[in-house]
């Protein structure tokens, strides 16, 4: 007996505009509670909304990046419900005429490449935030009221927690690349709700859809879906019925927990937002936005493979953020061993950068790394010395050639100078010579190590190997 997993996502993304959706209040994370508010975002009598044009632009950019059809005419609606974080008693959103429809994002699914459909992208405003104290009091911070959002509604095309995570990772990378959002989950800039149910492929019977909220990481999304899949399969196996529920993910228990049961369909009484006119876009306006759209991650990855002749995995890592890809290309402008750049950036550079998604500000220029790599390739210093230089560059921001001179790291490539050291090492280690002649390969490695130690790591390893082998075989 087989089961089919059906997963759809509702993703809320805060847009990185300078001001809020319908007023001039600052759109910044944090701040003292209730200091970034005005009559409009607080919903006070007489406050009238004025649409921030950049919301339209950013929503259209997101739609284009996700292969959506940009609607020339869309409208805003009022979604009515009552909750302390919603001061007006309704949310300004888009219902039946959203700005973007019918798109997709392609991922490497569980069984190969797979297009995940995008049902629609709608513009809307965020709500306030409830703060719960240890004394069981609930305080309201309305700084977030009116922050511009897009809600991206996927089609139920995802088949596992793994596919959902891959979709979200690619979506985040894409939105960050085009600069419409910072997508910081820890600050609430990207929030995701999951809808999941199971179908018995033999009988066609399906479980009721479960909505999982309060997911604060992509790994949490994956784990919540996997947990729900197992739970729904057990429901089918035991022939149990469960009406539609809303659950939350509990990290401590590693399971979903029931929040509420949906006995009735929510009646939001959608109605056109009378204070905002319809959004009408011309072909010229849409064309101008399309021309401004930067190169997207997938296209950039494919170009890196072709232009720099590096493996697809390397290209995928190097194009994971706009800042990292830009840094790689800057180094490549100054140095043409693209594979060597890739190797050093992915290993020595990235392991010293805590979070490439938040910041890729380095204490040195891309041209400085290129200069260091040129020096290594010329044989002026060896790899180990190069790593020491890079560490110093991270710590002090000094130029690589200055560090090499200060530390005396220039590699000895003069054969006669190295030969003197080799002769002394051979004279001090007669047993290793006998071991080598007896076929023990490790003896050569030991002798190389001794020469490098005697030269304080400055001897050219290739010259050392050549001289030792010549002398041992003679």
Provide a quick synopsis of the model.
The protein is α+β, with helices and mostly antiparallel strands and 474 residues long. It contains 15 helices and 16 strands. Helices cover 40% and strands 20% of the residues.
Shape: elongated
Q: Would you tell me the overall average pLDDT?
A: 88
Structural class: alpha+beta
Strand order of the largest sheet: 2-6-7-10-1-11-12-13-14
Number of helices: 15
User: What's the helical proportion of residues?
Assistant: 25-40%
Radius of gyration: 30 Å
The counted number of beta strands is 16
Largest sheet, if any? 9 strands, mixed
Beta fraction? 15-25%
Low-confidence stretches: none
Distance between the termini: 72 Å
Question: What number of structural domains do the residues give?
Answer: 3
Describe the overall structure.
- With 474 residues, this protein is an alpha+beta fold.
- It is built from 15 helices and 16 strands.
- The strands form 4 sheets. A 9-stranded mixed β-sheet has the order 2-6-7-10-1-11-12-13-14. A 3-stranded antiparallel β-sheet has the order 5-4-15, with no helix packed on it.
- Helix 5 crosses helix 6 (312-318) and helix 7 (322-334) crosses helix 9.
- It starts with a strand and ends with a helix.
- Heterotrimer of A, B and C subunits.
- Residues 326-472 form the Asn/Gln amidotransferase domain.
């Amino acid at each position: 007996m087989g089961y089919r997993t059906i997963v759809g996502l509702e993703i809320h993304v805060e847009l990185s505009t300078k001001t809020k959706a319908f007023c001039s209040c600052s759109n910044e994370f944090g701040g003292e509670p209730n200091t970034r508010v005005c009559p409009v975002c607080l919903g006070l009598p007489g406050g009238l909304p004025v649409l921030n044009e950049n919301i339209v632009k950013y929503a259209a950019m997101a739609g284009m990046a996700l292969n959506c059809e940009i609607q020339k005419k869309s409208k805003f609606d009022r979604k009515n419900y009552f909750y302390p974080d919603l001061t007006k008693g309704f949310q300004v959103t888009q219902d039946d005429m959203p700005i973007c429809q019918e798109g997709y994002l392609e991922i490497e699914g569980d069984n190969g490449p797979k297009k995940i459909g995008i049902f629609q992208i709608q513009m809307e405003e965020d709500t306030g935030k409830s703060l719960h104290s240890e004394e069981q009091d609930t305080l309201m911070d309305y700084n977030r009221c009116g922050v511009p959002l897009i809600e991206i509604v996927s089609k139920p095309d995802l088949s596992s927690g793994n596919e959902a995570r891959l979709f979200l990772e690619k979506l985040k990378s894409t939105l960050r690349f085009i600069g419409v959002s910072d997508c910081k989950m820890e600050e609430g800039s990207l929030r995701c709700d999951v809808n999941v149910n199971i179908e018995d492929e033999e009988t066609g019977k399906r479980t009721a859809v479960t909505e999982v909220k309060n997911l604060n990481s992509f790994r949490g999304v994956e784990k919540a879906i996997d947990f729900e899949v197992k739970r729904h399969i057990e429901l089918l196996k035991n022939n149990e019925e469960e009406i539609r529920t809303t659950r939350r993910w509990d990290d401590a228990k590693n399971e979903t927990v029931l929040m509420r049961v949906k006995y009735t369909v929510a009646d939001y009484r959608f109605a056109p937002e009378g204070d905002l006119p319809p959004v009408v876009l011309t072909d010229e306006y849409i064309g101008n936005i399309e021309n401004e759209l930067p190169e997207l991650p997938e296209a950039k990855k494919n170009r890196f493979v072709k232009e720099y002749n590096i493996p697809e995995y390397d290209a995928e890592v190097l194009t994971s953020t706009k800042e990292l890809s830009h840094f790689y290309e800057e180094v490549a402008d100054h140095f043409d061993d693209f594979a060597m750049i890739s190797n050093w950036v992915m290993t020595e550079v990235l392991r010293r950068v805590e979070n490439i998604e938040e910041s890729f500000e380095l204490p040195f220029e891309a041209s400085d790394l290129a200069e260091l790599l040129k020096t290594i390739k010329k044989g002026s210093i060896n790899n180990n010395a190069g790593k020491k230089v890079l560490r110093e560059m991270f710590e002090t921001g000094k130029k690589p050639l200055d560090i090499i001179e200060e530390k005396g790291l220039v590699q000895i490539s003069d054969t006669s100078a190295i030969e003197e050291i080799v002769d002394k090492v051979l004279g001090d280690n007669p047993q290793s010579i006998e071991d080598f002649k007896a076929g023990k390969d490790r003896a050569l490695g030991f002798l190389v190590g001794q020469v490098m130690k005697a030269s304080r790591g400055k001897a050219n390893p290739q010259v050392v190997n050549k001289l030792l082998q010549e002398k041992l075989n003679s």
